[in-house]
């Protein structure tokens, strides 16, 4: 019992290193859609078409390596006015990187993304795999790189990288995506959520991986239109008090 209490305290206290973490957006009639791992020619063009068709907005957390490989897709995202943020260069777990490698990865990613949009401040990013969002050491390394870093986490994940597992057809995948949206919309906590989706998820072995995001997004946009839910941007957290740097009052999953 004492050991569990000590672990919980360690996850809540720091030496002033905790950064703000964004997990929700204001109001029950809005959600924020976010995509990790892009850009990808398998997904980005269709995603942008769907967002434009439904007059919706999204935040794209891009991997530097993919952004460098597909610059025209990043240009298209920026041209449509969607937010572009960092998701690391190689999509490596940041809680397993050395401080030097950590800083190089972040700097290299921003050097790529800065070609397409101004460097944001506060500097919102998403950690690959969500790795280290609960680690004071990772927060300290982020703060030493840029003092204005804020972590964009999420409050609803579709775990979409699993939807094509053992899936034998596009039609079956469509059913799974539709069911995932029905379940999400029935959740009382859905309104105000930051939603986590993936573009052609890194590490997925399924041949249908590239079809997941377009199918899921289409079902999502149809669903929120029926419920009168709008899309909004991920805004910087306003909880930047001195005390919040030392104590986290709310656990983040």
Automatic annotation (TrEMBL):
Function of the protein: Is involved in generating a small heat-stable compound (Nod), an acylated oligomer of N-acetylglucosamine, that stimulates mitosis in various plant protoplasts.
Example GO BP: carbohydrate metabolic process
GO molecular function, one term: hydrolase activity, acting on carbon-nitrogen (but not peptide) bonds
Family statement drawn from the similarity comment of this UniProt entry: Belongs to the polysaccharide deacetylase family.
One Pfam family from the record: Polysacc_deac_1
Domain NodB homology: 29-227
Protein name, per record: Chitooligosaccharide deacetylase
């Amino acid at each position: 019992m004492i050991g569990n209490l000590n672990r919980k305290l360690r996850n809540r206290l720091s030496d002033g290193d905790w950064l703000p973490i964004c997990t929700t957006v204001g109001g029950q009639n809005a959600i924020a859609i976010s995509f990790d791992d892009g850009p990808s020619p398998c997904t980005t063009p269709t995603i942008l078409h769907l967002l434009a068709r439904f007059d919706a907005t999204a935040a794209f957390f891009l991997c530097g390596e993919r952004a460098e490989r597909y610059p025209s897709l990043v240009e298209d995202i920026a041209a449509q006015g969607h937010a572009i943020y960092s998701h690391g260069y190689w999509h490596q777990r940041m809680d397993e990187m050395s401080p030097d490698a950590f800083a190089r990865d972040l700097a290299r990613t921003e050097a790529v993304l800065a070609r397409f949009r101004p460097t944001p401040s506060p500097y919102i990013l998403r950690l690959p795999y969500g790795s280290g969002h609960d680690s004071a050491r990772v927060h300290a390394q982020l703060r030493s790189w840029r003092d204005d870093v804020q972590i964009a986490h999420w409050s609803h994940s579709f775990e979409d990288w699993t939807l094509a597992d053992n899936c034998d057809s596009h039609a079956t995948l469509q059913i799974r995506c539709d069911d995932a949206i029905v379940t999400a919309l029935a959740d009382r906590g859905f309104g105000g959520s930051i939603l986590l989706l993936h573009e052609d998820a890194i590490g997925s072995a399924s041949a249908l991986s590239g079809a997941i995001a377009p199918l899921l997004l289409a079902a999502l946009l149809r669903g929120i239109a029926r419920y009168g839910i709008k899309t909004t941007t991920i805004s910087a957290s306003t909880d930047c008090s001195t005390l919040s740097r030392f104590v986290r009052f709310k656990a983040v999953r």
